[in-house]
UniProtKB/TrEMBL annotation:
Gene designation per UniProt: pgk
Name of this protein: Phosphoglycerate kinase
Subunit structure: Monomer.
Family: Belongs to the phosphoglycerate kinase family.
Protein localization: Cytoplasm
Organism: Pannonibacter tanglangensis
Amino acid sequence: MSFKTIDDIKDPAGKRVLVRVDLNVPMKDGKITDDTRIRAVAPTIRDLSGLGAKVILLAHFGRPNGEVVADMSLAPVAPAVAAVVGRPVAFASDCIGAAAADAVAKLGNGDILLLENTRFHKAEEKNGADFVKALAENGDIYVNDAFSAAHRAHASTEGLAHHLPAYAGRSMQAELTALGAALGQPKRPVLAVVGGAKVSSKIDLLENLVGKVDLLVIGGGMANTFLAAKGVNVGKSLCEHDLADTARKIMAAAEKAGCEIVLPVDAVVAREFKAGAANETVGLDAIPADAMMLDVGAASIETVKTRIDGAATLVWNGPLGAFEIEPFDRATVAAARHAAARTKDGKLLSVAGGGDTVAALNHAGAAGDFSYVSTAGGAFLEWLEGKELPGVKALGA
Ligand SMILES: Nc1ncnc2c1ncn2[C@@H]1O[C@H](COP(=O)(O)OP(=O)(O)O)[C@@H](O)[C@H]1O
Ligand SMILES: O=C(OP(=O)(O)O)[C@H](O)COP(=O)(O)O
């Protein structure tokens, strides 16, 4: 796929450039805990600002479902972007309408403005034509630098590309090039590790993924849905019981494709979701009805390590447990360090991605030793499946 990049923009000085970035960063108590995604888009912001463009950032945060949700405001993210970029970043309380137009009108050449969460409007996820037009009113040019949101055909990730001259940002370009280089022709066996919490939005893509990889290790919240589908009593664990049929369909597809699915054999359970909560490791037949599985257990960790030892290529999205809260970070940290060590020894090509997965690798001190770390989780997995990502396709020249 060929597309124009920001080097192709003619006379950018003074132009209003709407830049779609992914600022969906991990946050705790209003503080950003991992700024990888901000650092990833900084080159695009700096370059456009340096060329004298008026840089207007569009982004989503969380899943507010079209409502204005105070703790999903991007307001606290503006100073974090300013700190990384090294230039002031103004903020507007809406991404369309008077608030946005007034803030855009105040911009001088090279200035940077962040608009409020696009998902505060229902029409963003519906890619509504009127909403796309309302966004486009504030721009002369559109740049998409959000590879990690490119699997969404939303107004700010896809629709705008059809209304304004569209270009790929530096991070979008770099991600596609790096993933192609690392995984274009992966050395087998290929091991995929999938965990995390976004079960309903990621489970469907596992059906195709099992046709592409040799082995699929499932952990984290994702594993609970599979275990429940196999009849395990998962207590109060994060689990989408209504996706049991989907899980069974994926297990059948994997068997047909010759892809082995490896599920946890034990779990660390607790009754509270907080640091230092009383916890114990139990077998799958002993999960208390009032407890949650918050990490995979010691025996499962050993299995994951052994599977990593047997792989030539590792692709990983989604932590194996609730790694933000100790001690439920053990499996994720152990697997990350093990994969990093194998990579350092030249025995493994390792690619990991996802907002929280990157934060987990940083927490484990392992990110630097992975072959490649992508900002993208779901988008990376869809790219791996061979799917055309709507946000990338719309940039096609
Ligand atoms: N067993 C579990 N129970 C509850 N939450 C979990 C569990 N395992 C992982 N998680 C949560 O999954 C989240 C990350 O999932 P996800 O958003 O899918 O990953 P990514 O952002 O890397 O794509 C983390 O916040 C982590 O706490
Ligand atoms: O965090 C993101 O994806 P990820 O959890 O797959 O890494 C992106 O910002 C997309 O968010 P979404 O899955 O709510 O569309």
